[in-house]
Amino acid sequence: MNTVERKTVRTIAIASGKGGVGKTNIAANLAISFSKLNKKVMVLDADLGMSNIDVVLNLATKYNIKHLFTGEKTLKDLIIEGPEGIKILPASSGIQELTALDEFQRLRLIEEFETYDEPVDYLIIDTSSGISSNVAFFCMAAQEIIVVTSAEPTALTDAYALIKVLFVNYQEKNFRILVNNVKDENEARDVYRRISTAAEKFLSISLDYIGYVPHDNSIPQAVRQQTAVVEMYPGCEASKSIIDISRRLAKEPNDNIKGTLQFFLGGLLKAKC
Predict the structure, then answer these.
(1) CA distance linking residue 258 with residue 271, whole number of Å
(2) Which domains does the chain have, with CATH numbers?
């Protein structure tokens, strides 16, 4: 990365224990909401074998991260522009060997980020679902981890399993919980209490509740149109919740947000083991 100016970059991994809880939709809408706050945002689709962000936002991708690993293209060649000017680094679809990066691929990714010199305020990492080595790799490289869950028992169980793996295997203690697709604040708080109680009892760690997104028929309508709900229905309850979460996150003091993209690279290097 250019050494003349090293802007602070906030890196946030969006993760979930299981698929179907709306993780990618949350990541895309948060990115757009941050951009609406005049932030420079990049989204890394880290579900490397099953590309999703470009599908959610109906973006045409000529190249993807596979072309970076083969050396055919650079990071700048891959990046496409999405709604509100967000930058997206697309994954590949149906490439099984990318579901677990090897040492060479990780080093190649690090090298490419080192040469990237465009301004970035927020790097949003949309991880794959579950507890694969790729998920751990990107979560441990990020400065913050937002775990998306719903009220479904399997979603709660799998979210806790993800937290447990990252704590036990990588000593990660800081997790933020976002509850999706619930009827109201009371149900969201109940979901948070259940997972938080388990984490305190069995792992001795505290989880941070950052908000919820209510069940809203506008979301599936926007998904079918391959448009972000904050763009298509900015006044609906789901959009208002997402925008509120982005505003509260953006207002947090910068004292706890240390580093540039080089900090992210340091996280990638540390996460290699």
Answers:
(1) 17
(2) 10-266 (3.40.50.300)
* Backbone conformation region of residue 84, classed left if phi is above 0, alpha if psi is from -120 to 50, else beta: left
Ramachandran angles phi, psi of 267, nearest 5°: -65, -40
pLDDT at 129 over 80: yes
Q: Which residues, 6 or more positions from 141, have their beta carbon under 8 angstroms from its beta carbon?
A: 11, 13, 125, 264, 267, 268, 270, 271
For CA atoms 216, 222, 224, 226, the dihedral sign is negative
Q: Give the DSSP letter of residue 62.
A: S
Which helix (H) or strand (E) element contains residue 243?
helix 237-250
Q: Do 162 and 130 contact (CB within 8 A), yes or no?
A: yes
pLDDT at 263 over 60: no
Give 181-234 pLDDT, tens digit per residue: 999 999 999 999 999 999 999 999 999 999 999 999 999 999 999 999 999 999
